[in-house]
Amino acid sequence: MDDTPPTLAPLRNVAALIGLVDRVINRDLGLPGMATFHGPSGWGKTSAVTIAANEFQAYSVQMKSVWNQTFLCRQILFELGVKPKATIPVMVEQIAAQLVETDRPLIIDDAQYLANKRMIDMIRDIYESCQTTVILVGEQDLPQTLTRWENVHGRMYDWVEAVPCDVADARFLAGVYGHGVTIADDLLEKIVVVAGGSARHVAKNCSRAREIALGKGRDAIDLSLWGKQPFFTGDLPTSANRASVHRLDPAAARRSDAAARRKSA
Amino acid sequence: MTVRAEKAEIERRAWKIIQSLEEFDWHTLSEPGIPEWRIKDILRAWEREGRIVISRVDGRRKWFRLPADVDATRRAEVGGTPHGNMWRTIRREKDVSALDVAAHSTSSTVSVTEEEAQRYCTQLMKAGYLKVTVKAVVGQRAARYRLTDDTGPEAPRPRRITGIVDPNSRTFRPLDEALR
User: Fold this and answer.
1) CB-CB: which of B92, B103, B140 is closest to A176?
2) What architecture (CATH level 2) is domain B3-65?
3) Residue range A209-232, pLDDT digits in tens
4) In chain A, which residues have their Cβ closer than 8 Å to the Cβ of B168?
5) What percent of chain B has pLDDT above 90?
6) One fold for both B3-65 and B79-180?
7) What residue segments make up the domains of chain A, in order of their start?
8) Which of B1, B102, B140 sits opposite A5 (nearest CB)?
9) CB contacts, 8 Å: A129 with chain B
10) What is the mean pLDDT of chain B?
11) Which residue on chain B is closest to A209 by alpha carbon?
């Protein structure tokens, strides 16, 4: 086991979010203290939120589609370590008081689920009451969604878009998740293409490459050593990688084989 | 900016400034464009709430400081701790390996090696906070863990003596003798 602390801070999306939080925290007097970080699912936003939360000791909450105002208040207070009171207005004041006291940022992940007037107004109320940094992280169309509410849109310090994982990011991820094994450029480029910009998929494939190399007693791997192993793409299993279907549901695999035979006949 | 928002912004900035000061009065916090009465109001409110205490009175001028216990705790919290960062990572990332935990928990002020993360994961697993989702294959694949008992934001801390203290639920879970 390596005794050097691994870090993902140099990844472009992580650096972008950390830079954004830092700029908003150190903004000049009078400038707004809310910001958004947005991009497609799988590009490493949630991972970046975890690292930024550790960097700034931020409070972070991951929204769910079914949450209402009360539940969101309760979850934020749970993260703040404060016992929630009964009503929403009191809980908003509790949140604001705690944020002022600790002066730590609040990061709301999956903020696309805030997209109704009452929820978004409540977040604005919290921000107005404490003026502490509030970062909304969400999917691609989050900025467009927020333009529907001018009073929130106008309080945004900056809008930063996540970027897809490229070869430079992949090389970095290979150093962390493929440690001890050298992953050749041809394999790394292939991994970036099949991952479609997803840092999570790149990391999983790098980890798989390490397993394959170590399993064959090698300390380096390229595309030829990877061979016909399926890449992790996040897609559902297809007939091309039926091995995984066989393992999961042998009966379904037999039915699928029979159907394929009938079709060819 | 509304009056309320302006007051909150001044309060936020003032609170940040006093974190690094041994002692302060209203002059310390005065800034161009901010009336004297507003800063004095804020200091009075903080004093009432016990967030600051009077350290001395110099003529008509009051000097304040942070209470000793709050001061020490707050300064320790600023940069985070290895256990705090690892616990936050485990809570947020849901399904993790020790390498994931270490890579997400290392910050500019906290270092976490894979070995430290592995030890913490094993301790949490033995204490019933994590379960193994993928078993390790020695020399090839690391184990993956999933959080099964999210007790709150404060990190459960292993204790050398006999087990794990969780400040969230104020509980103590003993570890097996073999793990000590």
Assistant:
1) B103
2) Orthogonal Bundle (1.10)
3) 998 998 888 999 999 999 888 888
4) 81
5) 34
6) yes
7) 12-161, 167-264
8) B102
9) 4, 8
10) 83
11) B140
For B143-157, write each residue's pLDDT tens digit: 999 999 999 999 998
Domain B79-180, CATH: 1.10.10.10
State whether ipTM is beyond 0.85. Answer: no
**Rounded Cα distance, A193 and A179, in Å:** 21
| Residue ranges of domains in chain B | 3-65, 79-180
Q: What is the pLDDT of residues B91-128, one digit of tens each?
A: 999 899 999 999 999 998 899 999 999 999 999 999 99
Q: Report the C-alpha gap between A204 and A219 in whole angstroms.
A: 18
pLDDT of residue A251: 63
DSSP A178-212: TTTSEEPHHHHHHHHHHHTT-HHHHHHHHHHHHHH
Q: Which of B1, B8, B31 lies closest to A100 in CB terms?
A: B8
| The CATH homologous superfamily of the domain defined by A12-161 | P-loop containing nucleotide triphosphate hydrolases (3.40.50.300)
How many CB atoms neighbour CB A186 within 10 A?
12
Using CA coordinates, name the residue in chain A closest to B1: A30
Contact A8 B51 (CB under 8 A): no
Query: How is the beta sheet containing B157-158 ordered, strand by strand?
Result: B157-158, B163-166, B171-174
Interface-testing mutation among B19, B92, B115, with chain A (most A C-beta atoms within 10 A): B92
Q: What is the largest CA-CA distance in chain B?
A: 72
